[in-house]
Amino acid sequence: MISDAAAVDLAAARRIEAVVIGASAGGFEAILAVLKDLPPAYPMPLVAVLHLPDHHESRLPELFGHRLALQVREARDKEPLAPGILYVAPSGYHLQVEADRSFSLSCEARVNYARPSIDVLFETATDAYGQALAGVILTGANYDGAAGLAGMKVAGALTIVQDPASAEVPTMPEAAIRRAAPDLILPLAEIRSLLARLGENR
Predict the structure, then answer these.
(1) Among 72, 111, 154, 193, which is disulfide-ready with 65 (CB 3.0 to 4.6 Å)?
(2) Which are the catalytic amino acids?
(3) Domains of the chain, with CATH numbers?
């Protein structure tokens, strides 16, 4: 069921300090759709895990960078998170957020058959940001991210899932809805609008 306007307004009034996004199959276009109108001075960091084949050189910073106003780059080990930047996980590494709100990279075992894993990013970002975090699950063909989003919901963070009816591949959003009972279930255009409104609160 799609979230109503009152629930969206309530969420938009929250003070959020970082946004994490997980996607898989169909995720490149979905991430573009939710971030395309955000300004270069967006006041929060955004961090995305998009599943890619192992040993596949990622061109995501270049591809996103040509189409977004935000700065885009691969997250680097020990780099502090900064506003106005979309960080993408390097291929073949888990991307973690440390307690001091810097990144770390890990080659540990796959989680839900994935490395980078959305669950790993979400769980560590929740530890670092708590209620000041927003998490977004978009289109995808597996269950990665559902457990991480559920933990985020328990911690009081803002949890958002793409409406499965609007997803190129609905498996990932459906799994997240079942596992996490997210705060909001929205089509891409409404997720984009909400992120813009959250930025205006900072």
Answers:
(1) 72
(2) 24, 51, 144
(3) 5-200 (3.40.50.180)
